[in-house]
Amino acid sequence: MADKEIAQDDQRVAVVTGGSSGIGEATARALAGDGWYVIVAARRVDRLEKIAAEIGGGAVRLDVTDDDSVAEFAARIDRVDLLVNNAGGAKGLDPVKEADLEDWQWMYETNVLGTLRVTLALRDKLVASEGLIVNMASVAALNPYAGGAGYNAAKFGLRAMTRVQRIEEATEGTNIRVTEIDPGRVKTDFSLVRFKGDRDKADAVYEGHLNLGPEDIAEAVRWVASLPAHVNIDRIHIMPRDQV
User: Could you tell me which SUPFAM superfamilies the record lists for this protein (predicted)?
Assistant: First the structure.
C-alpha cells in the first residue's frame, strides 16, 4: 500500500476524478488556486504526477470502472471535503438500431457506476467533513439527440442518481451538499474519445462554433465550492452563446 495522501495542517481536501486532462485538470488547478489540497485521480499516472507537482497536490491512479482500484484509492485518503465526479465520456455516434453494446456498457460503467463507486467509497469521509459532491453531468442529460442515445442514457442516469442523492442527503440530515453541473459544448478531447481517435471527426464538432474551454467549467466548480456550507447550488447549465 502506498503512503496516504495527507494535506497540510487543516487544509481542505478536494478529490477530482478524470483529473489528468480537460475539465478535470482545469478544475484541479482552479481549486488549488483557492487554497485546496487537490488529489487528482485518473489512469494516466504520468500526467497526474506532473499536474500534482505543479499545483502542490497529490496524484493517485484511479480506474472508476474497477472495484479494486476504487477501494485502493479510497484507502489512501483520510479526509475529503469536496468530491468532483468528473470522470466520464462518450463513445460512438451510432443510431439505436446500430448500437454497439460494448460502447454503451463503457458509457454506463464510466458515467454512472463509476460515479457511484467513488461516491460510495468516499461517502463516510464526506459525511465526517459535511462535504460537497459535484457531479459532472451534461446538457445531454436534458436534451436527447440523434446518435447520442447511449451517452444520453448514461447522463440521464447520472442526473437521476444525482437528484435522488440530493433528496436523500437532505432528508437524512448529513449536511452533505450535492451539485449537478451540465456543460454544453466544451473543446476538449471529449470528441476525440467519442470518435476513437479520429481527429478530423473530432475537430469538425467544434469548427465554426463558439466553444467553451475547460477553464469555464472549472470556474463554475470553483465558485460552487467557495460558497458557505448553508448554500447548495442545485444545478448549473453552462453553454457557449451560440448553443441553445
Answer: NAD(P)-binding Rossmann-fold domains (SSF51735)
